[in-house]
Amino acid sequence: MLTEFNLVVSTSRGNEKNTCSEMWYLLGEVGDRGSSIETTSVIGLVVAKTKLDPIKAVQGLRELYRERPWEFKYTLKVVPMQRVVPAQLPEIENAAVTIANEIAEKEKFRVTVEKRHTILSSKSIIDAVAKKIDRVVSLETPDKILMIEIIGELAGLAVITPNEILSVEKEKRIQ
User: Fold this and answer.
1) CA distance 1 to 151
2) SS3 (DSSP) at 144
3) Which domains does the chain have, with CATH numbers?
4) I need a labelling partner for 4 at 20 to 30 A (CA). Which of 23, 35, 87, 142 fits?
C-alpha cells in the first residue's frame, strides 16, 4: 500500500484491481497522467497519489462523471486527503491541529472518522481532536468536515466541505 496518498477510493468487494485501473484512467482524463494507485489491506478500498491538488482532482472527477457517467464502472466514492501520518493518537492530533487552520473562525465543523484495521476508537479520536480546535461544532450542518480516514497503520486527514467528497451514488440521484 502507498504510504503517501491523497485520495481514498471506495469500491465494491472484489473490484479493487479494476478500480485501480479505472482510477488511473480517470485521473489521466482530469490531467494527471502520472498518478499511483494501489490496493490496500482493506476489502473495497484503494488509495491513490495524484500530482494534482486532491480537492481539485475530486472536483475534476465530479465534472467528468457528470459528462461521462459510464466511465465510472467500479469507483463508488473518492475522498481527498491532505496529510498522511502514522495512525497513533498524538500524530493524528498534531496533524489535525495543523490543518484545522483551514476552518475559519465563524465556520462550524464536524469530525468524521472512518476507521479500518485499527484498535483506536472513533470516540477517543474525536474527543482528542475536537477539544484542540477552537471552533463551533455542528454535527448536522457543518461548513467544514475534518475527515480522518484510518487504514491500518496510516491515517489520512483533510479539512473539506461536504461537497468535496465524490459519491457516485449521490451524483446519480442528482442527475
Assistant:
1) 10
2) strand
3) 7-81+163-174 (3.30.70), 83-160 (3.30.2130.30)
4) 142
